[in-house]
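WARN no homologs supplied; continuing
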Amino acid sequence: MAEAQQRAQVLTDEYQKLQAELQTIVSARQKLESQQQENKGVKREFDSLAEEANIYKLVGPVLLKQEKTEAVMAVDGRLEFIDNEMYKAHRKANRRYPSLQRRKAV
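OK structure emitted
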């Protein structure tokens, strides 16, 4: 009987650990989605600006003038990075979810 309780406790602990991992992944993905939306909004704003428009970047307490092409490249780079991180989070969640379901079924 004690062995069955130990096994049940181990399975419960594993299940809770997997749930926590999955929740961490979901939270990270939500944060990335929020950043993605912000950057897409910035990109839309940049697309509506004239080529000669002044763009400023906040660096610490100082606003620095930035070329539009440089600013667009920075936003595109961030969007690419975010897309890659979201893909990684999606793959990681897909690997964890079946383990969670197996533990739940036991």
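Strands lie at 55-59, 62-66.
OK
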